[in-house]
Amino acid sequence: MAYVYMLQGASGKYSLGATENLEARVVRHNSGMVHSTKRLGLPLELVASSEYDSMTEALKIERMLKRWKKPSKALAFLQGGS
To answer: What's this model's pTM, rounded to 2 decimal places?
Structure first.
């Protein structure tokens, strides 16, 4: 299984990502070890995630959502509102 997830930082900004181990990835983000999300401010909260059959599919969805440029639209998609 693979996941596309959205995190929200203390600053209110969002970050999208894809992983095969969601729990470990969120822990890693919150440890401050991920350069790309340090700017969001800790703690980071997992606000949405969606499960996919393969990492290839998850990465495809992640790229699509990042192109949308609107966190609210991506959040609705991940929460099942498509």
So the answer is: 0.91
What is the distance between the alpha carbons of residues 16 and 61, in angstroms, rounded to a whole number?
10
Distance (Å, rounded) from C-alpha 26 to C-alpha 22? 6
The sheet with strand 2-8 has its strands ordered as 14-19, 2-8, 45-52
Structure tokens at 39: 């700017």
> For residue range 42-77, what is the model confidence (pLDDT) as tens digits?
999 999 999 999 999 999 999 999 999 899 999 999
Query: What ranges do the domains of the chain cover?
Result: 2-81
HSE-up (13 A, CA, CB side) for residue 52: 18
Query: Is residue 34 packed enough to be buried (19+ CB in 10 Å), middle (13-18) or exposed (0-12)?
Result: middle
- What is the CATH number assigned to the segment(s) 2-81? 3.40.1440.10
